[in-house]
């Protein structure tokens, strides 16, 4: 089984916004996905909506199943912080630099989703220590679009306003906070009527949350998928004439019950300075990489792909190029799970350790996400 390396530049999440902006007349943007169309478009990102999961549960999502579309790749790691960075910046991981759910940077291990210090019970806000605009200094695709005269609107949960992740990768748009399905639909419709050229980005998180807690494909997850389907249909019903809706996701998900606990495993801990990432993909920062690699390989066998930093970069896991300031954030070893493996941390990540569903790796289930569209 070979890793599914993301199709950066020819079919990945990082290509979505540039493809759409090419149709809105933004200079320098290329439509590699064939999405260029109406001058007013909404991108609805459903967290955790994997392509295979959608295909397996079409009966629960008749509207989404009826839309034209195909599968693209999420990017690596296939996790929310990295994927939202790819969407917002329009570039692969090695260029935007958010190399995982958590990673080492400047002496800190950053939880990129919460922009706090990584660890059990840690709520230390790092926005003043690891300034989001410095961690991700590249101009976002939204900033480029706004400079070109496109009205950029972000229809996101209210508590994401001013967050570290929002500042790092979504800056450039006008933030419009929402509380639930109702005002999300209303805000999108309002945004698409606000100007002649509009890019609206909307986000829904709950499908991913239920997949983590109950498992992808569980009864609770399927009910949430039905609600997501109605949400997408309502957004489509509210489109102004000629406007477009594009539905995508940030990653798929697998049920991972083959658990190895780093926090209680002396073999895995030996020689490891820091551990980042999450259960399905780990950044391993070491004192002696080859010795640690040998121990991890012996412990995990063929249940994971284990690559050195140089090997992962050479294989293109993080994109065709990795900027110099990004390289140290990647582990000395990168461990990507196969099958149902999860490398958990019962002490440092007690909540995440209880999850049924996980994502992050290079399997088809985690990498393939939908790109669906309809025109009002």
TrEMBL record:
SUPFAM superfamilies: Alkaline phosphatase-like (SSF53649). Signal peptide: none annotated. This is Putative AlkP superfamily pyrophosphatase or phosphodiesterase. InterPro entries: Alkaline_phosphatase_core_sf, Phosphodiest/P_Trfase. The lineage of its organism: Bacteria, Bacillati, Actinomycetota, Actinomycetes, Pseudonocardiales. Pfam families: Phosphodiest. GO terms for molecular function: hydrolase activity.
